[in-house]
Amino acid sequence: MRAVAEEKFGKELVAIARRAGGQTEISTLRASFDRLKVEIENTGNLHIQISGMMKEEVQKIEAFREHQREQKKKFEEIIEKVQKPIEALYKRTMESKKSYEQRCREADEAEQAVEKKSHPVSTPPKQTEKFMNRARFCRQAARIAEKQYMWHIGQLENIRKDWESTYRSTCEVFQQQEIDRISILRCVLWDHCNQLSMQCIRDDECYEEVRKVLEHCDITTDNNYFIQTKKTCCSPPNPVQFQRYYNTQTNGNASDLAANRLSLQPESPGFNSLSFSVALSCDLTGVDIPISGANVPSLEDSVPDEEQYKALYDYTAQDPDELSITQGDLLVITEKGEDGWWTARHGDSTGLVPGTYLIKI
Q1: What are residue 330's DSSP bridge partners?
Q2: What is the pTM of this model?
Q3: Which of 339, 360, 361 is closest to 352 using CA atoms?
Q4: Is pLDDT at 297 greater than 60 in this prediction?
Q5: In this structure, are strands 330-336 and 341-346 parallel, antiparallel, or unpaired?
């Protein structure tokens, strides 16, 4: 908009200079008018020139934004691809939890029914045996539901770790994009103010105030402010943990219920109650690596010679041209792509790996 305004203003100044009067004046006043018309036309041409310079800067910014938009879309698709299975597995885990709790309640009710029917002398032995068989069947179904629930918890934890690793690397890429964006816009604004100062020195004091503000522009401060105002929490969400039914829901005397359940269970030496817990591992690499603008490698750096890097995380190849790596592997980087994927060699295998998964040795 400023470029269009400068172009319009310049053309109007040129038109004014060509229509200006003063032809009837003579001598020095005529010369003053003629000089005034020349300077007005020169000023108009300078405004038209600065308009063209501004349009070139706008084109550069548009190209930069389009590149970042494509890169961001690529990583968003990766996040969505990882997000869908974890949502589906979480839903199945909650369903298995409900099934497990329902089977436990049915087993408790069946055992209580056996306890009530076993005391009266008038109860036929066949009916008593029928209740006991039902109690055993319900308890066996509860054990099966418990194992299924624990299996779903384990699967959910495995896929959650993969999701967290992918999400962490994606956030690092987005952070690097924000650093690049602030740096580019900061430089463009600086040049823009210099152009306006050269065009109109009388307005230089106003633009100098803008430069003073730009001198205080700091990438780290901007990122920290964004994090403080937009953050949702300080740590990843806790994993879903297995909750034993009898630790959270007990009715009556817990020792009596336990004794009744043990009396109805078939003798099975070596059978022990199972407990399960899932702990979130906060240290994925075992190495404290600070993340800052100085430590993140630039995506546009060229590789003069082969460089050795170390893998920070595990990565499984998704396409034939990619290379699977394991945490701690030593790789030789032969090429760094602008899209964040680097060509690496590990032994006799060569393929693409995400650059954010590596650190230079």
Answers
A1: 310
A2: 0.36
A3: 339
A4: no
A5: antiparallel
